[in-house]
Amino acid sequence: MGRKLSSIFFAVPFLAISLAAHADPQMLGVIQTASAVPLHCTSAGCTAELTSICLHEERPTPTTGYPYSPHNPDAMQVMGVQHDGQVVDLSPAGILKFAAARGFTTVKVSVPATVIAELGLASVSVNVANPLTLVPGKPSNSGAPLHEADIELGAGPMRTTATGIVDQNTDTMHASQVLARMIDVLPQWDKASTDLRAGVWQSAAVPHAENLSDVGRNRAKITYNRCYRQTRIGDKTLRGCLAEAHDDFVRDLNVKYWEAVKAGS
User: Fold this and answer.
1) What SS3 state is found at 23?
2) Is the pTM of this model over 0.85?
């Protein structure tokens, strides 16, 4: 009898882990941007990182590259500049692609090269003017799928709670966004050149400075200076250090949101 009970107790946690592993991942909230975010273009298309949070703590964290789709695409503004200098407003639908980048703290927004060529764009930028909610984009065959009621709850009351705790904490979120702008221009795998390391604050952060809170801007500058010193030698890259700091900022506020959701449930 003891062996049977022991087997049952060991099986229950294993079952919970198994179900969680096969559940649909978390819905994500993309944080409102303080200014338009420029996408950086290569032959493969144009991309940028956007700060995000997890709306469903109990669901699995998305793997890198997991596709997402916007629940309320009208929260975004997309602006393109054509090769002749003409500025055009673009609809996000059919243009923007979203995918998880680093867990739940960052999503990659991209415009495929085919779209860039078709529209004749020299550059493109995205502004998240209002709280944006992303829903996992793959068809669900999981043991715990997201139902319509889950999506409406996540995009409605839960996103509203997150807005008050996270989006409106401009000091932390502005700091995170400045770090994201620097991360965008630093090489993903290799170490940045000496000139790029020294100039990335001026080239990537300063253009957004006038739209930021003083505290947020100063926190980002302190973080950049620290990471610059720490990555002068060794294998750690400036991009990697800034990414760790960005994600720490986001997690701290995300935990406060999770606690608020639990307290209200």
Assistant:
1) strand
2) yes
